[in-house]
Structure formats: C-alpha cells, structure tokens
Fold:
Amino acid sequence: MKLSTAEFRAMQSLPRRLGQRFFEMPMFRSMGLDLQGKDVLEIGCGSGYGAYLLNQLQPKSYVGLDLMSEQVELARRKYPGFQFLIQDAEDLSQFADGSKDVVVIFGVLHHIPDWRKTIDEIIRVLKPEGSLFLEEPRGVDIKIFDTFFRWGHPDTDFGLKALEEHLAARKLVIQNKQWTPLLTMYHIQK
Structure:
C-alpha cells in the first residue's frame, strides 16, 4: 500500500530520521542485530535512511524494497551506492530460497494488505537460523493515528497478537521482544 501524502511527509522528516538513528537502530542492536558480512533485505526502505544506517554495520550485501516509486527515487538519489528496488513485499520470488541472513522492517508490515503472505515470503528467503528484525505499532495505535492524522492504513486484521500467532504457526521463534510507547520491536529467528 502506498503512503498517504501526510504520512509520506512524516516519513521524510527530521524527527523520523532521529528516531531511526538514536532509538530504533540502538534497540535493534541491543536485541542482537549484527550485519557484518551478511546478506540483508530491508522491506519498506522508504527514502533510504534505514539503508544508510544498516550499511554502517558492514553487510556483505544489501537490497532495499519499497512499493512507492517516489520513495525509491529519493533513496537512489540520496544513496547511490546501495541497491533499491520498486517491489511489492508480498512477492519476493526474485530472491532465491534461503538467500538472506537478515530481513529488517522498520514499521511497514502493517501497511501491507496481505501481511501474512509477506511473512511467509520472508521465511522462504531467510537462510536457516536467519533473523527478522521487525518493529510495528499495536493495532489500536494504528487506528488512533488514522483517526487523528488520517494516514489511511489498510483495513486488515493486523495487530501484534495476530502477528505473534502467525509467527508461532510458522514455527518462528521470538528471540527478543521489546515494548516501547509507540512500537513493539522484535528479533525473530527462523
């Protein structure tokens, strides 16, 4: 799903970049994020700031995906040394089974109408014992944001309980879970 104009602007803002740099990345690192020498896929790369931060950890390879061409164009302009693709996360068929060590999602899964299919695709592309680092707001928080800011998230059953049930059904293990006032952060292992 494409972002609304209001959310698109919010995702380009200085507070968003500061949050990623000084809160989200340190939290992921404290939860075990180590990318050195690893093959990394970022789903919902946006304008590329997450790519910049992730590549500071020296992965072997990095690919960032986003459905919005506007986001990918910004990312390619700002960070020409990284690989960005306009791609729907519900279909990762261009990536081989077991080809990624780590998949990272900075709060984008709730934007994907068939988020379960995306999780299943992530499982397929992760190597054995590969990791998914994921942050998401609670379902109720999404509804509150939509009420006040009119961001227009898809009307799905996404919520942390539904997410955790799907992860358990797929035999994924939550290695670490950290609740914060705006996001719940996960380190999930295949």
Q: What stands out?
A: The chain has one domain: 5-189. The chain is about 40% helix and 25% strand. The chain has a mean pLDDT of 88.
